[in-house]
Amino acid transporter transmembrane domain-containing protein
Amino acid sequence: MAIEMQEKKSNNFSKGGHGHDPEMFNHQEYSKNFDDDGRQKRTGTLLTASAHIITAVIGSGVLSLAWAIAQLGWIAGPICLIAFSVITWFTSILLAECYRSPDPITGQRNYTYMDAVRANLGGVKIQLCGAAQYANLVGVTIGYTITASISLAAVAKSNCYHKYGHAHECTVSTYYYTVIFAVIQILLCQIPNFHKLSWLSIVAAVMSFAYSTIGIGLSIAKVAEPHHHARTTLTGVQVGIDVTGAEKVWRTFQALGNIAFAYAFSNILVEIQDTLKSSPPENKVMKKASTIGVATTTLFYVLCGVAGYAAFGNDAPGNFLTGFGFYEPFWLIDFANICIAVHLVGAYQVFGQPLFAFVEKLCSDKWPENEFITTDHMINLPCCGQYPFNWFRLVWRTLYVIMTALIAMIFPFFNEFVGFIGSLSFYPLTVYFPVEMYIARAKIPKFSATWIWLKVLSWACLVVSLVAMAGSLQGLFESVKTYKPFNNKH
């Protein structure tokens, strides 16, 4: 049964997503089921928001941290991890204040990052924000497809090494596993919106804790081995021994991009905040969730990075669970890689849903009379109740997943891709827009002490992002030169 009329009715009292008819709120039944913007009652809590953040932050980035610290060394490595953590936490607190405008508690809701920029900055910055945010979301979903397929292929390789010995040439193509991951995503992408993902994020967060803990435990066990002699240094990989001078510079830059990617979640922070109940105020809950999420992930990141570097030294693999620094116990390696794949199934959705919603809203606004795009049909699913089926959602989301899978097959470069996406998104989404919106909202005078140090922070992060992007692009270029498409064995 079509529910297009129901949507139009909702639009009558929620024009533009902000206004409402005051008389509607006199009805107790209405206020039980709908929020102040006319949308269905939000049910998100501190727990679900924290789970969303942990799912988004502890992703494939954690797997490259041992390699990143190997490039930077014992001094600069941990310092960079902590610095990125503090900056991400600080700017997420600023961004949490932008969910409602002009008042952070009673103002109109901004459903997306772009809405927040529109309400606080306006002008061409809206388009710049949209381009940065959605390009990053596409890149992250491609990166997660690459990582999940490599992890699943690592399970097959682990069993091969266990059966035939570590010296055996166990070649496993990632293509088959990319297709499996894509099929799973095609099914999950039919979840209508971000508000229905809480259970998936909680499962994914548990998985991220599991494989991070396994990685830390295996690293500590390797360090504790009687004849363990991993070579570590204060400055990381050594020029003339491990790398050339030019390679040292490029790898250092790429390592910064990998760390930046590991902390990326600002691009979906507003969307996560939009899932929260209005009481207590969303900004207060989101600040707590950001603090919990960033603090938790930083603890795991430092442990993974430091323990991984101590275990492998300057020879740390790009991915410390799929690079086969560990071979035994093979079943534990298998379990860890399965946890990575399950986690990335959920993380793909957390990052993909805001993009899906943006495209679908854009199309429905442009072609409001097109029933293929705007009409939902309610169907009964066993054990799931009623499901709003939409033909446009089915077709376009399926095509999107296929596109990300094809790109992941053609360019399966883990460290380089992760570094590039991290450098691309860190400055504009994690630093620039939150700082600029805070300055505009708080009406901070130009050249005041607060204005100056915020600008210094912003410009410093721009420099870091640029050098990280340069290092990652150089790494991608080198990988592409030596890569043979469609002969991909890992």
Notes: The chain has one domain: 42-482. Residues 1-20, 485-490 have pLDDT under 50 and may be disordered. Residues 100 and 379 are 35 Å apart (CA to CA).
